[in-house]
Amino acid sequence: MSKLSITALILTYNEELHLDRCLSSINEICDTILIVDSFSNDNTLKIAKNYKAHIIQNEWVNHAYQINWALNNFNFSTDWVFRIDADEYVSSELILNLQRQFCQLSMDVKGICINRLMYFMNSPLKRGGMYPIKHLRLWRVGSAYCEQRWMDERMKLTAGKLIEVEGDLIDHNLNNMTWWTSKHNNYATKEMLDFFDNKYSYFNKDSVKASFWGRPEERRRWVKHQYLNLPLFIRPFLFFLYRYFIQLAILEGKRGFIWTFLQCFWYRFLVDVKINEVYQSVGVNKEEVYSFLNKTYKNFPLKNKN
Description:
The chain has 9 helices and 11 strands. The protein is globular, with a radius of gyration of 20 Å. The longest helix is centred in the last third of the chain and has 30 residues, at about 255-280. The protein is of the alpha/beta class.
C-alpha cells in the first residue's frame, strides 16, 4: 500500500537508543520524515539519514518552542503532520486503521486523536489513570499549533472537526531509572515555572481549555487545575492515593507501586519543594518572583514563538 500524505515530526537529542525503532514503525505510512534535532553528538543523525529524513537543527528551549519553530520554518509538502516522539512507535492496529480511514476523511476533519500507551519497566501501564490517554497527534498542515507551556504542552486545533482513530501510540523509553529520575528532576523545574506562570499570568498564551465535560485532554487539564489549587505538600499525598487506590494502580503489582510512588508522589513532591524554595527566596510578590525566575532560569520568560 502506498504511503499516506503525512509528515512525521520528531524532536531529537541523542536518541540513538530509540530512533531506529520509531522510524521503522512509521516508515510504511509517512511520506516524509522531519527530524528537528538539537545538535545531537551520538548516532541520531546517522540513523535519520538511513531513512532519508529531512534534518533541521535548532537550539533547544522546550517542546512547545521546538514544535512551533518547526511548523513555522519547514515547507511541508504533505497534507498532514504527525507528531511522534523518538521513544514512541505506532502499533500495527493504528497503522492499519490509518490506512483504511485516511482516504475517507472529509475536508472538515482537521485533527485526529490517538491513544497513547505508556510502558514502565518494560510492560504496559493500563491502570492508575494511564490508559487510554488520548492526544491530538495528527493534524492537517496549518490547522494546529502547540500551546506555550513549559510542561504538559498540547497541540491545539485552530478550526475544524476532531476525530479519533483506534490503535495505540506506544511510549516505551529504554533508558534506566537513573536517567528517569534525572529527567524528572528537570521536569520538576519546568512544572514549577508553569505553576508560577499559571498563578501570576506572566505570559499570554491561548491554552487548551480545561473542562470536566470536554474531550479527554480537556478533562485531564481540568483535573490538573483542581490539583494546582490544593495546598503544597498535601496534594502529592492525595494524588498518590487517588491514582493508586481509586484508579487502581494497585492492581499493577510492585511495578504499579513503583510507578505511582515515583510519578505521582516523589515527582509531585519535588515540584512543591521547588515552588516553596522560590517563596522562601523572594516571597509571594508577583514582580519579585518574576525577577527571580528571570534571573535564575534560562529562557524564562519564553520568547514569542508563534
